[in-house]
Design a protein that fits this description.
The chain has about 400 residues and is of the alpha+beta class. It contains ten helices and 15 strands. Strands 1-5-2-3 form a four-stranded mixed β-sheet, sandwiched between helices. A four-stranded antiparallel β-sheet has the order 11-14-10-15, covered by helices on one side. A three-stranded mixed β-sheet has the order 4-8-7, with no helix packed on it. Helix 2 (about 60-80) runs antiparallel to helix 4 (about 130-165) and helix 7 crosses helix 10 (about 380-390).
Amino acid sequence: QNYNLNRDYMKADTLEMRAMIRTLALWRPDLYIDLHVTDGADYQYDVTYGWNEEAGHSPAVSSWLRTSFRPGVDGALKAMGHIPGPLIFTDDPLSGIASGQTDPRLSNGYGDARHMAAVLVENHSLKPYDQRVLGTYVFLEHALRAMARDGGALRRAEDADKRRQMKDVPLSWRVPEGQIPEQVDALGVESRKTLSPISGGVRIEWLGKPVQTKAPFAKATMVESSVARPKAYWVPAAWPEVIAKIDLHGIAYEKITEAREVDVTMSRLSDPKFATSQFEGHVRVTATETPEKRRERFPAGSIRIPTDQPLGTLAVLLLEPSSPDSLFQWGFLHSILSPTEYVEGYIMEPMAAKMLAEDPALAAEFQKKLEDDATFRGNAQARLQWFYKKTPFYDERAMLYPIAREE
């Protein structure tokens, strides 16, 4: 179906990833290792690996991986003739290496959101096959040895992260402005750039000669956007697909058996921006949010998801519209972005005339809109719609995000 399984941890479209996520929810492993082979730039490292850094959702787990896990694994790999290194996603590590937080659609970002140690391993495709396989064996053996030696400390770190319950949940990070990157040893391979007669662009030719130099190591540690953690989320019974995703990820909730009225905050969405092409079978969307305090009635079968639970952060990342891996941005709630109810022109014309005659302030507002907005002035349907929105008959729930926050 042309899905990339390693992009599917949050939206869980595929049978394989739904099975994997159910397994993680059931077994609750302390350490999750995701084995890959990468390509891209050439460099000396044959086993690169990493995880979300301390600035992410699980700082205690990240600290354990950095101080207890990596030294032993790196030492074992070096002793067996391998060259371990950090995750490298760049055209050339000699020009710089970047580190930061991965979105939860990916394995190491998803583990971070679950407060589970998740390590992404990338062996390099340009290295001999037997070298890559043997490097993986060494890595896995010494991952198990690290757990045998210090697994209790990892479990305590995971428990600490689950109890942490940050007041503001980060959604994205960036490199701090003005930060002077740390200089680190980079084990690269000499290259040259030439003009390609095939593509017409600049191509990189790798020359095979090992090169060691100091390179900038930029870390995305500053929170760029975040959202306040609510006490709980309410998902109406009318959204069973959303509830099914919550079930799949193993997030705890209460299902009400009788209708209940609750004071909540809901988001009125505006200016939706759809992606210009599909990705992973979805048309992604973002929108502007305006909060509304409401007394909302939730029917029987609706669920209340408390965020004071081990997977509370994961619930925030799934349900907040501003979260890059939310169900909203993946397109599971597109239907709320267009009103279902409409009005016929032959009804709205005399109603608008009566509204103008009875409300001088409305008449002045309409006249100003005509004078200031040429597009509006020339669009008969938009003018009637403008009046319709000011009647009590307009679809009040259009553009209202249905998942509510209990503050």
